[in-house]
Each structure stands twice: as structure tokens, then as C-alpha cells.
Amino acid sequence: MPVYNKLVRDRIPEIIETMGKTYRSRVLNEDEYIKELRKKAQEELAEYMNSKTDGEAIEELADLLEVVHALAAAHGSSVEELEGVRKMKAEKRGGFQEKILLIDVEDE
């Protein structure tokens, strides 16, 4: 029997049941949930970094975005508030569309 001990999407138990399999799970407390979401973010980022095609990259970015949405909610925020903070930072500091690689800055 494979042992996973990891956070899974909400419908995974239902999918396992439709396959005629049994499973064990438990509901995490808030501290455990945030810890597991952070681990899941690292997992999804690693999968994105290892993607070989644009299609795979988009799939992994979608997974990562789902985790970001859950983390925002876990930290008492919303996707809309998160997007507002992102826009504010983009207005102040810019985005990444111009593809600028900073080489160095001369010290005085």
C-alpha cells in the first residue's frame, strides 16, 4: 500500500472511491494546513521547473496558482486582495515584461 502523507485536492478521496479503493485521511488544523500548503507550493514549483513543454508548464502553473489561492485564503486574504497587492507592487516597481537582467550596481 503506497503511503503519501501529503495534502491533496478536495476531490481526490472521491476519485479514489470511484476506483473501488479504500484510503485513510484526516483533516488538518490551520497550522498543519499552512505548513502542508507551503510544501505543496514547493512541490508544484519543482514540477514547473522540470516541465519540458509549454503545455506541461501551463498545467504546473495552474496547480501552483491553485495553491497560491489556498494560501491567500489561509492567511485571511482573498484572490482579489492578492491581485490588488500584486497590481500595486507592479505600479511601484514594475513587472517582468521587459526581461531586464541586472548585472551589477556601482557602489560609491
Which descriptor suits the 3D outline?
elongated
Q: Which blocks of ≥5 consecutive residues have pLDDT under 50?
A: none
Task: Report the total helices.
Answer: 4
Q: State the major sheet.
A: none
Order of helices and strands: HHHH
Alpha-carbon distance between the two ends? 63 Å
Portion of residues in beta strands equals: under 5%
Q: Give the beta-strand count.
A: 0
Helix content: 55-70%
Radius of gyration: 19 Å
Average residue pLDDT: 97
Class derived from helix and strand content? mainly alpha
Specify the oligomeric state: single chain
Question: TL;DR of this structure?
Answer:
The protein has helices spanning 12-18, 30-49, 54-74, 79-93. With 108 residues, it is mainly alpha-helical.
Describe the secondary-structure layout.
Elements: H1 12-18, H2 30-49, H3 54-74, H4 79-93
Description of the structure:
This is Phosphoribosyl-ATP pyrophosphohydrolase. By secondary structure, the protein is mainly α. 58% of the residues lie in helices and 0% in strands. The protein has four helices and no strands. α2 packs antiparallel against α3. The longest helix has 21 residues. The chain is elongated and about 65 Å long. The model has no long low-confidence stretch (mean pLDDT 97).
